[in-house]
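Box 3.1. Reading complex inputs
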Amino acid sequence: MSALTPARPGSASSSSASGRGSTTTSASDGRPPRRGLTGLQRAFGRHPIGVLLALPYAVFLAAVFAYPVVLAAWMSVHDWFFSAPGVEVDHPFVGFENYRQVLTDPQVHQAFLNIAVFLVINVPLTVALALVLAVALNRAARGRTFFRVAFYVPYVTASVALVGVWLFLLGGDGVVNSLLGPLAPDPSWLVNSSLAMPSIAGFVAWKQLGFFVLLYLAALQNVSKDLYEAASMDGAGRVRQFFTVTVPGVRTTTALVVILATITGANLFTEPYLLTGGGGPDGASTSPVLLMYQLGIEQGNPDTASALGIVLVVLVGLLVLLNRRLLRSES
Amino acid sequence: MRTSARWGAVAAAVLLTATTAACGGGQGPGNPQGRGPITIWLSNNEQEVAWGEEQVKAWNAAHPDQRVTAQQIPAGKSSEEVIGAAIAAGTTPCLIYNTSPAAVPQFVKQGGLVPLDTMPGGEDYITQRTGQAAEQYRSPDGHFYQLPWKSNPVMVIYNKTLFAKAGLDPEDPQLSTYDDVLAASEKIVSSGAAPSAIWPSPASQFFQSWFDMYPLYAAASGGQQLVVDGEAQVDSQAALDAAGFWRQMYAKDLSPKEAYTGDAFADGKAAMAMVGPWAVSVYGKDVDWGVVPVPTPNGEPADQVHTFSDAKNVSLPVACQDQATAWDFLQFTTSADADRALLTETGQMPMRADVARTYADWFASPDGAPYAPFAQQAARTVEVPNVKNSVEIWQDVRNAWTGSVIFGKEPVDSALRDANGEVQHLLEVP
């Protein structure tokens, strides 16, 4: 039975889904509505108290997510800028003009290309390193707590402080180039058009590793030791066990890590702003969010910045859906 | 979830969103005749804060019914974005002593600033205090939305010790032409006196051009702004000359393409730097330095060379409720006495018609003497053009500059020509 453990989350999920499905079916299967429900219950379900309990989070969601997204969508189809309270300003509807500007801007194309390079490097790197380190930490007998803390510290440290350290590491006269000697790239990492974005991808993967390692460590606790014993008895070595037991056993967590890494990566801002001096060299590390900041905040064009933001939301949404579908089809 | 419950949830979400939206916004325009306690914002510069607090103390002693409270400008990525956000939220103070001229057109577009020439005696006060240079700060609609307050004229500071080590005469460094500077730079680097000759920031932020390209453009053009009579000058001969000079500096590795994490001049990694008078207090004790005007293609006499002003001005936001008090306090803090205090305590140049002559006694004193060259230069400063889309224009210029001049990815002339077209479009767009 324990061999089925990795499948349990899926089974439970299916069971739960079917449970919800049966409730839905009973409400829409043509039978007349149940009697005795008050108006409140008709509006908010059988347990209005549940709605009440969910209200604070709903308020939070409305204020922090729903309102800005709706406002951004509205701004993106109007000629809009921030004005002082009480100042009458006309914000005419401009249709898709802001989107046309955004989608025909070579800087935007470059930024999306940059972020694609970033994601292609950062997401697999994050998944691979986090999983391998989690497995190693899970097995480590000595210093486990020390290493867990060590991996987690960069995640909770301010990017600004870490960027300073990495500037010293990756600078022309930095530690990395000193170690590489004649093999050091010229121009150096952060001023090299081909290496700037990969350098940032490596930095972000390192910085966020602690969080994803924790996720995998939690997932590894659900992988039964019996499976490893069974695999071992079948003659599987450590590597074989890793690919046939561990990787399938943490698949749902991998899906989560991929989605989170994709979303946070697509929202890259601090690193190109600070590490490469505002998206340099020559725009090679400009990200869409950095461009949004320049357009919306620095240059006073929040309407075009909003259009870019909506495009980004749509693309990231599609990417996440694609990820989910691919990972689900694999499982 | 049943359909009715879904609709209930949707209705609740819409209601919540609408409620949230209704919570935004601050107070509307204030009263031009209003008097009462006010708040002002100062920069985070320690010396300026000390000066500001002294001024506030003196004012409050004489005006107990119109007390002024000074605060440092809230932290942000830049003061411009903090001010812009405060204008939109209606949470601005009554005076902002750190207003960048490049951001003023944007603040005006937001409807956030009071035209100071509409205050009693405003036009005369500004033009008499600042003289002809005040015209650079007049907006296209004819109003002054900023009081020209202080400048930091950009000059070339050099390390005498490193110059001597490179075999250059530290007392007569010969840095007036582009060829002079290139020759001196090659000596500095080839001799090993310093790993680089001069190390301006190669970063892509829009304001970085004010400290490499614009001072040399201002000098080469004989004191013209980047926009003349509505025409962009990004690919003018003066701009091409300045760009050609810097291109050689980068191509010959006399200026690094990489940002320095500290202060390259203070650390001896560069023998020269483009600085304002603030540098006197920063480097004064640790570096044996000299200062000269920025170079020009043909080496103009020092007393004819123009440069970028790097000014910070004072603005009065419309949300200020007691604008009459704010206007009085603004005049109080820009009087001849207050300007003398600003000069002696911060070393920055009050934007007065003839600052060198007005405070000649101080510039002749041991404390003031190091600032005298900057005071002479203050008479010939060029401001960023006061035009709409100002920040966007500077970003376009910077993008072209980093691609062509710093990294050499495309020819300088075609990059500047393309940028000129983009800037012209931004000037003409309705």
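In summary: Confidence is low (pLDDT under 50) at residues 1-7, 12-25 of chain B.
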